[in-house]
Amino acid sequence: MRWLTGILAGAWTVAACAAAHGAAPPVPAAESKPPAADVVEVLDRMDAAGKKFKTVCATFDYELNQTLYEDIQKRKGKLAYRTPNLLRFEFTDRPRETFVFDGRILYHKKDPTKQLIIWELRLPDEPAVESFEIGKIPFPLPFGQKKAAVLKHFNVTRSTAEEAKDKAKRQVLALVPKKGTGLAKDYTRILLWIDAKQNLPTRARLHDTSENITTVDFHHVETNKHLNADQFTRPKVPDDWEVVMHAKEGR
What we know:
A hairpin with a 6-residue loop joins strand 9 and strand 10. The protein has helices spanning 8-21, 37-50, 147-153, 160-165, and strands at residues 55-66, 71-82, 86-91, 97-101, 105-110, 115-120, 154-158, 171-177, 187-194, 201-208, 212-223, 242-246. Strands 7-8-9-10-11-1-2-3-4-5-6-12 form a 12-stranded mixed beta sheet. It is globular. The protein is of the alpha+beta class.
């Protein structure tokens, strides 16, 4: 499982391909460097914006470019997030797939294969995940990340080349994982396009160590919209579906 929730399913696809064909050798991570003043200013605005919302809803366009195999997959979907630890992420086109995280367990509902896959991330006697902050869980959101956590795990710069090409005039941050972080094993670079009005990422592009490029464009981003709690519970499936349980080690 990889960093951004918006590419959660794509990360699993990448992992499966890497296991089958052999992953590319990891690219050395960057040494730690202090951020420039203009980077700090963008991160401060993102940090402040993240403190103001309790929920986030959005639709998205998803593209996974597996460059080694010259294969591009495109999907559409939507996500719903409620602080501090509830998430629903689903592909709305075919094949339909839904991911739900309730703070302890990640559910993966696969309509084409009639399967409900359950990933236990917390034991019953362990506290629930307190947040989706980087480093605390395999799939924190691109929304609401704290500046301190971002700078702890990444060297961050402005990508002037991408900003010059962007018709929406968004600021673009380039994040390179620091040496010794878990993210350095998975990613060589992450780009975030920041909307100037909401100070939230509206595009994320991830370059991973298997030479895949994943891009997620978020649309119709809404914050503080009421979300029913029942959409963050275990998905209901027919009795004839297969239920696959991946219990956390330590039981």
